[in-house]
Amino acid sequence: MLNVTYENISQIKRLNLPEILQSKGIHLKRNSNGSYIGQCPFHDDKNPSLSASLKNDIWLWHCFGCHKGGTLIDFLRLLEGRTFKEIYKDYSKTSIERPVVMSKDIQSVLNQIIRLYHNILCENDKAQEYLKARGLLDRDLINTFKLGYSNGAVLDLLPNDEAIKSNLKDIGILNEKGNESFYKSITVPIFDENENALGLYGRNIERKSHLYLKGPHKGIFNHKAIKAFDEVILTEALFDALTLYKQGFKNVTSSYGTNGFTGDHLKAFKENKVERVYIAYDNDTSGETQTVNLAKDLTREGFEARRIRLPEGIKDINDYFRYNRGLDFIGTYGTFANLIKEAKKIGYSATQRRREEGLLNYEDGCANFRYADVLYEIKGIDIKSASDLRVVILAERGGCRHQDRLDLYSAKTRGIFVNHVSKKFNLDKTRIEENLLNIIEGLENIKRDELDKAESKPSRYQMTDEEEKEAKEFLKSSSLIDKIVTDIEKAGYVGERVNKEIAYLAATSRKLEKPLSCIIISQSSSGKSHLMETIACLMPDEEVEFYSRITPQSLYYMGRDDLKHKLLIVDERSGSEEADYAVRTLQTRHRLTLAYPVKDPNTGRMKTIVVEMSGPISFIESSTKEALNPENTSRSFQLYLDESEEQTKKVQEYQRFIRSLDGWKLLDKRASVIRIHNNAQRLLKPIKIIIPFIDRIKFPSRWIRTRRDQDRFLSLIEAVTFLYQYQRPIKQDQRGKPYIESSLKDYEIAYNLAGRALLDTLEDLQGSTKAFYEALETTIKRKATESLEKFTFKRRDAREWMRLPDHYVKRKLAMLEELEYVSCERSYKGGSFTYRFIPRLTRENYISGLTHPKDLQKSGT
Description:
By secondary structure, the protein is of the alpha/beta class. The protein is 42% helix and 18% strand. It is globular and about 100 Å long. Residues 95-103 have low confidence and may be disordered.
């Protein structure tokens, strides 16, 4: 009778399926991802459709033609018609410790060696005793991370192939004498997304020494955890990470020693949107020093860094969870969880980074820059030559200095400098290279600024008497707002009345003490940039700053009044994200200040220089993202562009019209329209605005953000009044100071605009997502024969109903699913998803608590 065991069945499934298939006459070809492809023997397979791949140490096969699949046991049943007992009898005693496949592919060989190490560990008592002493003898832990042990068996199993042995020496599996480098070591492999080994760590259980594969460290330990969590525990050593994982802390990864935080770690943290890193380095001087340095690097990259402090007398994480006789202490899951809660923030704060990084000062051909804890002094800057950046550069970090002469525009000389500095300062090369590129940008800005100062500034535009007359007539028009909307259309932007009015008023408000700002939101090709360009061209050139991108430090180094009462436009949200803090400060506090230390050339002592930039500004930017930082949206009106088919038809009709004879004539008039608006804006003068009915205005107060929303609404009233100043009598208070008063008409205009703009800012469905939902709701109501909740549809249905591209429909359905407006039933065996519609509850109008113009008029009589 057969003695069938789970372990033997698992061993059969781990046997090398490609080898066995090829031994039975089925030719397989290896793909770059490690899987194999060949012709399926179970149907007439002209194009290879049989695939075999290794998943979790088990070989699986699947045919994409006849859809058969399974393990080695399933394959042999179908191919040879054999019973399970027959297969089990023949293969249960087959050793998986057979010679390594004779392949020139070193990745495949390395993967097999790591599997061999893993199997050896599972049978080696000495290795298991060591893990037990370290508190790491756990079957799930060993299998999850494929921990292994080298007992020298690799040499006996290797084929007699010098090419393979040479490759194994190159990567460090074998030493120069041809012996196993990891002999008598517990091994911890580092895998990529396809379960290919990128690296290998070894801990010699006799000498207590550490070893890695040759070359730079690649990949990160426990990479799956980085995807699943927004906060990560980072240990100094892999054994520490294994210890935490065994204790139940799955969101853990490890550096490769105190200096072993690599670019792969940083890349993975960024790509997977990690927000917080808990650093759990050793409780010693080296661990403390490197924790501080790493925290600065992490916070410089935008992460929050916290230090997990171990009790005095506890060396490292592994030590923490083992009984300490001197302290009569052993750590538990609960006590370590408390250490996480108590972990303090370290590294640079956002304010420190903004103040300390970038250009510190420039004077007489010498500039100083700071990036994290590295200082750069640049001498010999040739301001007159735009194409020459040959300089003397001195880098300094923690008392260590390196000076060189190089051409910053030369990648070759930069590379030499980067190599020297990274070795001397023990820093990642990519960080030094990034610093140099930022320095190049900073020096180019200095050159431009210095050349601009050398040139005389153009004089302010002088209107003729005729131009002033026509501008005043325009400002005194009884239907001024309607005329503005019409002129914007003549200037080239059709439809979108509310958005045009708010954008124009925001641009006009630049002269007020509390200007308005806008964020124009829509998908690509919908007209965001065109609207901004149209509004900008109607404002005087000397009062508009239009940029594609602004860097974090750029605003601080403009002239003191260069932006004061101006319209600042950034073409795309991604171009202003770096300068978010500076822009928000100008919007709220109406000034920027920067203090930095410099050395006095006369006394040699350090002194503090303060740079100040004056506001206020009106700010307009655009974005394709609907989910924006609340810090930005609470300071700006969000203008969602119309993405409907009707608006598309208007745009297309206008595109055809301007190519007609009448359209040609209209284009000729465009210059006069722009001239009138430019001059009218020049005639608008700053003046105090009083809202006489201010005590009768009621504003919603159910949401905390309305504290800023009301202020924006009142500023909107002031902007309307300011635009109508030539139609309002100028009054004087008791001190003789002039002012004008807002009228009920001004309030009505602002109220009608707020009904659209303020409602969109608080809705959970906004802009194009709201329009998509409403179109979907209308269609489903028309097609459903029973309740909406029972009606199901697929993504293809939504595409065909609304004639939208698949990527757009897919993204919108995902957003609706996240907000719980649709539910999705996923097929776990492949195929499409099925959606169900969830009707939206009726929501109270956001401005229902805002005083209606008619009520305001009644209350005043």
